[in-house]
Amino acid sequence: MESLAVTALLALISLTAALDNGLLKTPPMGWMAWERFRCDIDCKDDPENCISEDLFKRMAERLAEDGWKELGYEYVIIDDCWMSLLRDEQGRLQPEPSRFPGGIAQLARYIHDRGLKLGIYADMGTYTCMGFPGTTLEKIEIDAQTFASWGIDYLKFDGCYSNPVEQLLGYNMMSKALIATGRPIAYSCSWPVYVGGLPPNVNYTLLGDICHLWRNYYDIQDSWDSVQDIINWFSNNQDDLQPAAGPGRWNDPDMLIIGNFGLSVEQARSQMALWAIMAAPLIMSNDLRNLDNSARAILQNRVAIAINQDPMGIQGRRLLQEKSHIEVYWRPLSHSASTLVFLSRRTDMPYLYHTSLAKLNYEAGNYEAYDVFTGSTVTGLNANTEFTLSINPSGVVMWYIYPEQQSKDTETLYYHQHKTASQFTFHRAKPGHHTVL
Ligand code: GLA
């Protein structure tokens, strides 16, 4: 056992920067089946919602046709329960034929034809978490090759049914095996969850060299309690987690559940705002065929997305926890901009919060702020200006803030997002006023 661990460590060291293959310079965006559709394999009684190629095709159509793709939501990710219980004669994983009659390669073509990318799920261990065939150490290479041959673009590698030594070795081996296929495949590792998520059990510097992103904490559920629990854990441990993130290496607090059953409109905005602060993957798990307008507007909010996707890739932090149960979060952004999120943990009524930018560590100077969810612009904001915000229970106020001088100097573009630059361009309409195109 000990020699296994040593080999694994040496292999880890030899891998440094090996995964810096240009993928996921900003957090991935897309859709994943798990939180909303779980392990529903009952296609007889629930044909519209069961884990099948039809479900992924329908979601891909929605992503491509309803404006998601243009905003950056590009990955369609299959989670657990897609497999047949048996590998084929060559030892390869295969999809359950009744639910994926066309096979995964054909599904990948369908997804690629719509300008999207396909992700898939496997598990480092004897079984997947739901009991389907796992990827033991000796199967890593063949599984990586199978995925590449199908045209897979993203692998979520879970960690049920394995021990820490196997995981240390296996997550590293899969990283190498994916690179060896020659196909660019984004690599999401669940490893940290299985070892407590924190140093010294997780060395985030090394982890960032083998995985593009990683799940640190427990699964999200469809409730505000679950979202709050995740926000608390990430913020309480931000000194360890925040420095680990950067282009090509992201903490993953799990899927966006906006559009499901558990969140109010306020809470849905709060999830979107906090996921932008945390530079988190924007991977929705909802039913894109049935979204109400408010969920759609929140998930398609261009400024929230641009903040999430800021090219510097610096994860934000919780600055303050007030006795009033207001919390303030901050994230620095490109072009001397930043974002502030004021989150209310209250359960009574809108709270009037008094502060100033100076109190939140801003340098002296004049600023403007764009309110991300109301679309209004606050001008003439000196660092010392005292202002009052009204924050709804379990809701947020989210500001995009930039130095006033900058808006005077720059006629049009001073902040854009690389994927679809024109959509995220802040345009100077008339002096002192900003519109977002
Ligand atoms: C684990 C993961 C989830 C999901 C399930 C599937 O719990 O953390 O995200 O993939 O397994 O069984």
Essential attributes:
about 425 residues, alpha/beta, TIM Barrel, Immunoglobulin-like, 8-stranded parallel β-sheet, 6-stranded antiparallel β-sheet, 15 helices, 18 strands, about 30% helix, globular, disordered C terminus, binds alpha-D-galactopyranose
Shape: globular
Tell me the CATH superfamily of the largest domain.
Answer: Aldolase class I
Number of self-contained structural domains: 2
Total helices: the number is 15
User: How many strand segments?
Assistant: 18
How are the strands of the biggest sheet laid out side by side? Answer: 7-6-5-4-3-2-1-8
Name the average pLDDT. Answer: 91
Task: Tell me what the CATH architecture of the largest domain is.
Answer: Alpha-Beta Barrel
Oligomerization: single chain
Helix content percent band = 25-40%
Bound molecules: alpha-D-galactopyranose
What are the segments in which pLDDT stays under 50 over at least 5 consecutive residues?
409-437
**How far is the first residue's CA from the last residue's CA?**
58 Å
Strand content: 15-25%
- Which structural category do the helix and sheet elements fall into? alpha/beta
CATH topology of the largest domain, what is it called?
Answer: TIM Barrel
Radius of gyration: 22 Å
Quick one: biggest sheet? Answer: 8 strands, parallel
Can you describe what's shown?
31% of the residues lie in helices and 21% in strands. The protein is an alpha/beta fold and 437 residues long. It has two domains: 299 residues, Alpha-Beta Barrel (TIM Barrel); 110 residues, Golgi alpha-mannosidase II (Immunoglobulin-like), CATH 2.60.40.1180. The strands form four sheets. Strands 7-6-5-4-3-2-1-8 form an eight-stranded parallel beta sheet. Strands 9-10-11-16-13-14 form a six-stranded antiparallel beta sheet. A two-stranded antiparallel ribbon has the order 12-15. A hairpin with a 4-residue loop joins strand 9 and strand 10. The longest helix has 17 residues. The radius of gyration is 22 Å and the shape is globular. The chain starts with a helix and ends with a strand. The C terminus is likely disordered. The site of alpha-D-galactopyranose has 10 residues, from loops.
